């Protein structure tokens, strides 16, 4: 486990997408984040106190989280110098970047000297099994998407919180760097070797018999030509009872691929159900989650209503309007069967 | 490149499936294999001369190929001792086992001392890109399967040979250990990190404009719950113009999974076409390849005829009866369009 509380790093970032890990922590682990560390040229903020390493340490921060992404996932000199400052102040450092902290000798030497730890959350667990597809007990919900980065992690966490709010046991199962930092554990699926994708998810969300839910963070999209293999293995490993389709209505084309259009929601939903049925024959779609951050409230509510009508499923922006409509319907679909009526006389 | 000729290792193997790499080399690189090395307790043979290391060396062998698989893909002491004998005799050693030769200090030290090389063909190339899905020039055919290990590699190689026999430029693109040893290069797809499956295939079979064919070795099956992610990424990365469905009619259940039945051929073909259309909208199925090794010739020919009739596609056992029916139809489907007729006057 990565010791909290955290100082969230923004550094010199000027790209909202690039700070999504820091923002996710601020959104879902707010109480564990003492502040954000950004340089003067960083125009972005998480809306939490700005502080430097010394102030953060004084406020109790134990780990600097390098919650940013940059081109190629590399540790540049700026990033290394800043991490060295945090280490010198006695803080651990955690990173979800592709280039590992432990591969940078200066960081390793400094951490050893001070006695703090380096956490590379993109490391895949050792000794993952190949998936076996055996039906396992428990209720699992998987978020799927029309594209990458459409809000699957946010939707999954909101569904967890809404279930917990009504006393249903519910656990978030993280499959990406940000989710892992929020949850404290998980499997960084994009670092798993291809043969073990489904097996990794079988391990991440094992059989459970407490009538609670595992809410599994989806990745990629069956319609993204770069990552559909990951999404396929995730569907098979998850054996979901329920899937929730996530979508960004403002997305003009598949992420990073201007030559690919987004699928329509009905086609995407049916394709996901078809793939999921291989290991979970009775899988049901139980909702649509829209990321409406770029729409005004009236337009967002209207779009949710229209989408619900068109697809015959509850639709909400779970982060903006709450996940209750989807949770209501999911719990209804999977309620224990009513006791059978026995004919009297 | 791995220096030939080869000595093919069977060792103490008593399981036909376990020697498939050695058998594949004997089948498709016969002229480069001086013999097989098996111990007295090995009941199997490739039908080529049995010889020990000294005899193989005298016959010109330059590399011992550990063309066997064992539980867990590990290098046991037997295997290491035998590899050390080959090294002492001046031979290189090549392996497709999961456990790497280079991770065994005794082998590394011996190879260094003698001046020979160790080849781990399961190593994935460094710096693979993420797939981009951009349409690229050239004609590619991908073999797909109802299951793992149903003859996709054999079918692909037979298709190549049949195309070459009629003067069509055709290259085999290997995606597994055996195929890589046969071809001399390729990408061991099961060792590639999940995010790079499609990208690896885009690199393996790049654009070509010589009117020739890239024949890509398929892996897994969309209907195998352990490996469908690999098959999906392979379909997307390959952008196949044509797919050929491979099937073992005697397979009782999905390989390794008694609780999963095989899909029927029509369902499997349609699912593969549907996935392939994302990056190759005009993809066509051009044949069915059956592995009829366990049927007598009459039954095999009848089954091919019945299957062709049922699916409306040429069907053959390409290794037993030749790949011509599929090649004929494939070349017909993708023949250059006849010059447009111009109306006279």
UniProtKB/TrEMBL annotation, chains A, B:
Source organism superkingdom: Bacteria
Organism: Sphingomonas adhaesiva
SUPFAM superfamilies the UniProt entry points to: P-loop containing nucleoside triphosphate hydrolases
Biological classification of the source: Bacteria, Pseudomonadati, Pseudomonadota, Alphaproteobacteria, Sphingomonadales
InterPro entries registered for this protein in UniProt: DgcN-like (IPR011669), DgcN-like_C (IPR035086), DgcN-like_N (IPR035402), P-loop_NTPase (IPR027417)
Domain D-glutamate N-acetyltransferase-like N-terminal: 42-123
Signal peptide: none
Protein name in UniProt: DUF1611 domain-containing protein
Domain D-glutamate N-acetyltransferase-like C-terminal: 130-327
Gene3D superfamilies cross-referenced by the UniProt entry: NAD(P)-binding Rossmann-like Domain (3.40.50.720), P-loop containing nucleotide triphosphate hydrolases (3.40.50.300)
């Amino acid at each position: 486990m990565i010791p909290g509380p955290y100082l969230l790093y923004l550094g010199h970032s000027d790209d909202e997408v690039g700070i999504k890990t820091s923002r996710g922590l601020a959104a879902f682990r707010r109480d564990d984040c003492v502040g954000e560390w950004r340089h003067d040229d960083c125009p972005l903020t998480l809306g939490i106190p700005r502080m430097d390493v010394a102030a953060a340490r004084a406020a109790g921060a134990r780990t600097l989280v390098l919650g940013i992404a940059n081109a190629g996932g590399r540790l540049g000199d700026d990033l290394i110098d800043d991490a060295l400052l945090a280490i010198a102040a006695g803080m651990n450092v955690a990173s979800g970047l592709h280039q590992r902290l432990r591969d940078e000798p200066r960081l390793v030497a400094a951490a050893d000297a001070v006695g703090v730890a380096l956490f590379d959350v993109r490391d895949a667990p050792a000794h993952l099994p190949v998936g076996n597809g055996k039906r396992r007990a428990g209720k699992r919900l998987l978020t799927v998407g029309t594209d990458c980065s459409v809000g699957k992690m946010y939707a999954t966490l909101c569904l967890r919180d809404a279930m917990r709010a009504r006393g249903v046991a519910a656990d978030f199962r993280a499959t990406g760097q940000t989710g892992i930092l929020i949850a404290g554990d998980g499997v960084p699926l994009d670092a798993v070797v291809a043969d073990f994708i489904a097996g990794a998810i079988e391990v991440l969300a094992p059989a459970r018999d407490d009538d609670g839910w595992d809410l599994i963070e989806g990745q990629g999209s069956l319609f993204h030509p770069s990552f559909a293999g990951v999404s396929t293995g995730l569907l098979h490993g998850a054996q979901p009872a329920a899937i929730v389709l996530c979508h960004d209505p403002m997305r003009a084309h598949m992420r990073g691929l201007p030559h690919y259009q987004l699928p329509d929601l009905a086609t995407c939903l049916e394709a996901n159900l078809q793939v999921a049925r291989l290991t979970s024959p009775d899988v049901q779609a139980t909702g649509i989650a829209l990321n409406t951050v770029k729409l005004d409230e009236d337009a967002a509510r209207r779009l949710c209503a229209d989408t619900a009508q068109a697809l015959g499923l509850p639709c909400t922006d779970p982060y903006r309007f709450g996940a209750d409509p989807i949770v209501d319907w999911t719990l209804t679909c999977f309620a224990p069967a009513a006791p059978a009526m026995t004919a009297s006389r």
